Amino acid sequence: MLPPADSVLWQKNFLLGAATAAYQIEGASSADGRLPSIWDTFSATPGKVLAGDTGEVACDHYHRWEEDVALLDMLQVDAYRLSIAWPRVMTADGQPNQAGIAFYRQLLQALRARGMKTFVTLYHWDLPQHLEDQGGWTNRATAFRFAEYADMISRELAGLVDAWATLNEPWCSAWLGYGNGHHAPGKQEVKLATQAMHHLLLGHGLAMAHLRANDPSAQAGIVVNVGHASTTGSRAADRRAAELFEVQNNQWVLDPLLKQRYPAALWELWPDAQPQVEAGDMAIIGAPLDYLGINYYFRSNVVSDGGHGYTEVPLEGVERTQMGWEVYPDGLRHLLVSFKHDYPHLPPVYITENGMASDDKVVDGEVNDSQRISFFNRHLAAVDQAVKAGVDVRGYFIWSLLDNFEWAFGYERRFGIVHVDYATQKRTPKRSARLVQQFLAERRSK
Ligand code: GBH
């Protein structure tokens, strides 16, 4: 993994980090007063998660965090991105739960003591179940509960965080959670999804003000997932289908954040699903960001569904990962360059997630994840190209530090650069982790 000499990766201020999320690694789902989240409920519902897996134990990071910090220290990454479990740090009546907060305080202190920058996401999908019982993100009140949580936790942890993110991938919370039901809470209604999105974004905007007031030296932003679409169809309707895919996946979130409006084309796709928006909401949502976190994984090929929408038609003969996702690095370059063009107010960007799953096995104490190494090399080259095209990208986080609970796919899909044997909780750095470590050592010696 040695990039070309002129790559932005050699610049010491270009952050190379690793990322995780609370529910996917922590386990200890009822320790120290942690309340149930929608993912505890969802994963306990038969048929929702592959093999009936849950996050009850996961990587047991809640108890093994020191070992995991030592792994990060061994890799010598510049930064670590983690998320805070809302149900761990706040009681049902909105008070701080000091036992849960202490966990994050000691973790952040340990990371800081080892010279790592801390990127902290407030919400990576684990809504307290008691809020879902009152309608979850479809209830406007949840946006205000989220803002209270952001206020409380940013007071408690002020000074320990380099960059806050309000939400991870609101598209997934809204669409997978309330639209197609693949994720918790498993609702399936477009109208619920658009309303949930509006409340997620409103919660984000309200939270931003608290983050800035309580921790003025930290950066504050949001993390979004983006997708790129191609079409193999030859009709104008097919090209429009590819555009609408990107409207649904990208502009639905980015336009409110960066242009203070929903894209009109969204209502071409969903004519009867406009959310209720109150006066002043869009200005709150569109408050300036210090940075935008972008998570990119793959490209989708679509054609027109004959009506106003699109259907996916998988490309044949392309490289795919264990998830079945196409490996398409140029999609990342393409999207970054097009965002710079489409959004005059695009803030500095961090790639907050990029990575792939493979069916990795430990053989003689080693894991040879050669597809992942090639994946990283090619996506980092795509980021470098975007930087050279003028996009202000300041860092890149590998998804993920550890193999972990891959949501609806449970433990079957391995995204880590460190292998986890779930029977013993033994961590084994894969070859990709060794190469990251070597590259960073080489960069430091220059
Ligand atoms: C990220 O989301 C998550 O932030 C992270 O927690 C997760 O582990 C990682 O990716 C790997 O999956 O319409 O049901 O076919 C990735 C977001 C996932 C968005 C797949 C688009 C298509 C889902 N992407 N998704 S579906």
UniProtKB/TrEMBL annotation:
<dbReference type="InterPro" id="IPR017853">
    <property type="entry name" value="GH"/>
</dbReference>
<keyword id="KW-0624">Polysaccharide degradation</keyword>
<feature type="active site" description="Nucleophile">
    <location>
        <position position="353"/>
    </location>
</feature>
<dbReference type="InterPro" id="IPR017736">
    <property type="entry name" value="Glyco_hydro_1_beta-glucosidase"/>
</dbReference>
<dbReference type="InterPro" id="IPR001360">
    <property type="entry name" value="Glyco_hydro_1"/>
</dbReference>
<comment type="similarity">
    <text>Belongs to the glycosyl hydrolase 1 family.</text>
</comment>
<dbReference type="Pfam" id="PF00232">
    <property type="entry name" value="Glyco_hydro_1"/>
</dbReference>
<protein>
    <recommendedName>
        <fullName>Beta-glucosidase</fullName>
        <ecNumber>3.2.1.21</ecNumber>
    </recommendedName>
</protein>
<dbReference type="InterPro" id="IPR018120">
    <property type="entry name" value="Glyco_hydro_1_AS"/>
</dbReference>
<keyword id="KW-0378">Hydrolase</keyword>
<keyword id="KW-0119">Carbohydrate metabolism</keyword>
<dbReference type="GO" id="GO:0004565">
    <property type="term" value="F:beta-galactosidase activity"/>
</dbReference>
<keyword id="KW-0136">Cellulose degradation</keyword>
<keyword id="KW-0326">Glycosidase</keyword>
